[in-house]
Amino acid sequence: MNNIQISKNFKLKEFQCDYGGYVVKLDSTLLEKLQLLRDKLNNPINITSGYRTPECNKNVGGSSNSYHMKGKAVDIYSPGYSPTQIAKAADEVGFTGIGTYSNFVHVDVRPNKYYFKGGY
Length: 120
Ligand SMILES: [Zn+2]
Fold this sequence. Notes:
The protein is α+β, with helices and mostly antiparallel strands. It has a single domain, classed as Muramoyl-pentapeptide Carboxypeptidase, domain 2, CATH 3.30.1380.10. The protein contains three helices and five strands; from the N terminus they run αβαβαβββ. The protein has helices spanning 28-41, 54-59, 83-92; strands at residues 46-49, 73-77, 97-100, 105-108, 114-117. The relative contact order is 0.17.
């Protein structure tokens, strides 16, 4: 289930959380920008955290108003690219929330621009 191709390079199941069964919320703008980012980097993007149910969010210690619970955020990495390089490209394709961590980048589609450095 959820093994559906929803854009050129992404399947729905990649957005599913480990503890949430098959429920997935996914904002269409998020998917659109993620595909743009994939095309821009011309390199695979791995989603380490996509949609989170409230339980799932609690398990990973996410903030209580996390954009992950709205289907509007993903944590990603792309082999061969540094988080800083990915963050720069994410900014260029129009992601608004961008958090740079040591080994991944959080991107989301919140209303206003917000950049942050994640904890290490
Ligand atoms: Zn995140």
